[in-house]
Amino acid sequence: xxxxxxxxxxxxGAILGAxxxxxxxxxxxxxxxxxxxxxxxxxxxxxxxxxxxxxxxPIGGIFVGLTQKYIGTYPSEMDEVMGEFHKNGRVxxxxxxWRNIAAAIIILTFGASLGPEAALVSICAGLVTWVGxxxxxxxxxxxxxxxxxxxxxxxxxxxxxxxxxxxxxxxRPKIQDKKLHAQKIIIYVISIxxxxxxxxxxxxxxxxxxxxxxxxxxxxxxxxxLLFIPLVFAGKYFGLIYGLFGKIVTWITKRLPHNPIILAVxxxxxxxxxxxxxxxxxFSGEHYFPDITNASKNMSxxxxxxxxxxxxxxxxxxxxxxxxxxxxxxxxFSSIITGFALTHILPFDSIFIVAVFATASCTNILKLPLxxxxxxxxxxxxxxxxxxxxxxYLSVYKPNKKKLAV
Length: 406
Known about the structure:
Layout: H1 3-39, H2 52-70, H3 78-88, H4 97-109, H5 117-134, H6 139-157, H7 163-169, H8 178-206, H9 222-253, H10 260-277, H11 289-297, H12 301-320, H13 328-342, H14 350-366, H15 369-376, H16 385-395, H17 401-405
């Protein structure tokens, strides 16, 4: 990267960070306002508001199905966006941005067990590519600029400074030009720092807090250290259940009518029924984090485990029936609340148990150990951060069979 390109991208990186922060803020505020309008106000007219999911979710299925039929399969999944970017060096935006926005608003407003990250990444990547075209960037400049936009968006959505860098760089081919890589990281930091500071300011104006809350303090002793490996394996196999649920949902949907409206209504009915019995099934789950530690103390082991498994399953149901979106927030919520279930049967430090279990579970679902550790660690005190990183890498470690054979 020559000096001119580095200076240009650094300047645009700061502007990009601000742009991404404003876009994320406006999108999330819009969704929250619509959710409040749809889900809170009607309760005044219902003697038992617990019935509301049974009404609103199937209706939402009709709108989702109509969206899928007449607009297309939107919003784009994050893996789709990243795949298109790595293949073409850009993300197509013509006719897509408004479709991603419209579909995401409908799906998230009607209570899908999904997060906004997929929609925001697809919207941001398209807009950044559009800007790159208008600024007459070269192919490499536009590719770098789009990569910075995606990474910055991920960091800002999850309010985790280095998550976006890890998510876009992990699993990439081995770095050949380390100087170029260092230059790109510097630009990443400029973009992310600008965006996070602005987002923090905007949220402060509304009196909102960030995503991450400290779930509690931890005291580590020999019993916890001896429990580390079993917890990693427990989290690993819990994460594998998510893939199993995906296969079950796929098997079921293949035997249903291939009509997007019928399929989405079935998904809406399933979501509504699940939410009637377990309100935690609604939405992505991040707004439950501030109270999850205290709430878990008043819930039984069986109930917490049921909520954790049901959240994974209903997330797959949403994705399999046309309610498209991001699964990272629900996966984190499910992993953490199941970790709290284990604290009811293991008489050891509860925050240590949750940290190791949730990290291993999230890592096996996301398949990105560094990004997963960076994403989860802010829920826990810094004394547990080494265990978070160790759990992430250990949970995906596969011994070299050739070496073992020798």
